[in-house]
Amino acid sequence: MGINNYFGGDMTVPFGGFKESGNARDNSLHAMDDYTELKTTWIEFE
């Protein structure tokens, strides 16, 4: 707990809930899958 203090936390600890605001959990390794998209790029070298 912090009062008038920023807590960065740990990326492995989820933050969020399931009630009226929706069912989202941020700040976890699983959240990274929700916010990123895998993309493949091909580059030809001559």
UniProtKB/TrEMBL annotation:
Domain (Aldehyde dehydrogenase) ranges: 2-40
Task: Cite the entry's keywords alphabetically.
Answer: Oxidoreductase
| Organism for this UniProt entry | Neptunomonas qingdaonensis
**Descriptive protein name:** Gamma-glutamyl-gamma-aminobutyraldehyde dehydrogenase/4-guanidinobutyraldehyde dehydrogenase / NAD-dependent aldehyde dehydrogenase
InterPro entries xrefs: Ald_DH/histidinol_DH, Ald_DH_C, Ald_DH_N, Aldehyde_DH_dom
* Higher taxonomy: Bacteria, Pseudomonadati, Pseudomonadota, Gammaproteobacteria, Oceanospirillales
Superkingdom assignment: Bacteria
Q: Which GO terms describe its molecular function?
A: oxidoreductase activity, acting on the aldehyde or oxo group of donors, NAD or NADP as acceptor
